[in-house]
Design goal:
Length: 232
């Protein structure tokens, strides 16, 4: 599990040098998407990559019973659609949808993006690092699936979200304004009732405050302990 400092997560855009960013800006075009917009549809062909400049998205699919399962959350600096380009496979296996507010992304045609990679060796390294981190994340999730309870899974998710997407206030508390309770449930593949029960427990123990699509960690040490041990 990652540390406590918000903003450690580095996306593809952040790995690039300034001249590489400028080259990509010339190859693509900026687009703005409204809240709850679908950027990329599951099983539909795609001929471009997206680089997120502002805002957040969820990558999701439906399980066999039609329930949403959130596979990942991506934010500023992240790249989307790169696997379809790398594998020359135009169909994607999950849907990408905006979260909360409007989102701005750089849309780069697939052929232009692959040419950019060939012309900029450092960009290949940046993409490799992003894919390596994602593979490690996927391996960790697969290893933990079914082996930990809802409480521990929730604590790990909250800690992860706070680390990657949190905003630290002047009093040192970290707030995340991103997911609804249903989406939190979908992230850890748990029922809404089970997640609601655990959130009540955390609030009652003054570990956490919750609001509409937000939570604030009051006791980071306790969240980390639960993430490791799984109990109160």
């Amino acid at each position: 599990m990652s540390g406590e400092t918000p903003g450690w997560w580095i996306g593809f855009w952040d790995y690039l040098e300034e001249d590489e960013r400028q080259a990509l800006l010339l190859l693509g075009r900026k687009r703005t998407f409204d809240a709850d917009s679908v950027l990329l549809h599951e099983d539909e062909p795609s001929s471009h990559v997206l680089i997120l400049l502002q805002g957040w998205v969820k990558i999701a699919c439906n399980d066999s019973e039609g329930r949403e399962v959130i596979l990942a959350i991506r934010g500023p600096g992240d790249i989307l659609g790169e696997m379809e380009v790398m594998l020359a496979d135009p169909r994607r296996s999950a849907m990408v949808k905006t979260l909360m507010n409007r989102l701005q992304a750089l849309v780069v045609p697939a052929t232009a993006f692959t040419r950019f990679l060939d012309d900029h060796p450092n960009a290949w390294r940046a993409l490799y690092l992003v894919l390596a981190y994602r593979l490690r994340e996927a391996n960790r999730n697969a290893r933990e699936f079914g082996r930990i309870g809802v409480r521990q899974a929730l604590a790990r998710l909250l800690l992860d979200l706070a680390t990657r997407h949190g905003e630290r206030s002047t009093d040192g508390l970290i707030t995340v304004r991103l997911l609804s309770q249903d989406e939190i449930s979908a992230c850890i593949w748990a029922s809404r009732d089970a997640v609601a029960h655990e959130l009540v427990q955390l609030r009652n123990r003054n570990v956490l405050r919750t609001g509409r699509r937000s939570f604030t960690i009051i006791d980071m040490r306790e969240i980390r302990r639960i993430a490791q041990a799984g109990d109160f």
